[in-house]
Design a protein that fits this description.
Layout: H1 2-20, H2 36-74, E1 83-86, E2 91-94, E3 99-100, E4 107-108, H3 118-135
Antiparallel strand pairs: 1-2, 3-4
């Protein structure tokens, strides 16, 4: 380690001296490399590692995108399509429900509900009618 540190210090001194000399005497940084084959091998290993990491990231990204699409297909696509105004522009947005607070006039949007089948809708209307009759 002492020998390696000595070489490191010598290289640092040479690089500092190279900075002080005139432009004609200056050497390019690559001319200080002794083992060019090892340097190129290390650069190739670094490039290969970057390529592997990039491929893994792409696979992970595609996996997340597939999961997102499946979640949307299993939830959002099965929601009822309602037309509720949103914000001050009052533009209708699909698949939204608003939930109004009991104690204030605040509305919370994006309260989506599941689509009902015809049978479920018929049962719901029947139950609502019964409840209205009970309350009268």
């Amino acid at each position: 380690m002492r020998e390696l540190n000595g070489i490191k210090d010598s290289l640092r001194e040479l690089l500092e001296e190279n900075e002080r000399v005139t432009d004609i005497e200056k050497l390019v940084r690559d001319e200080f490399v002794i083992d060019t084959s090892r340097k190129s091998m290390l650069e190739k290993q670094g490039d290969d590692l970057c390529t592997d990491i990039r491929k893994k990231c792409e696979v992970t990204s595609l996996t997340m995108q597939l999961l997102r699409e499946r979640c949307i297909a299993s939830t959002w696509e099965h929601m009822e399509d309602t037309m509720a105004p949103m914000g001050e522009d009052k533009k209708p947005k699909g698949k939204l429900k608003a939930c109004k607070s009991i104690h204030s006039d605040k509305l919370i949007y994006n309260y989506a509900i599941r689509k009902r089948s015809k049978q479920e809708d018929r049962i719901f209307k029947h139950l609502r009618m019964q409840r209205q009759i009970e309350l009268r």
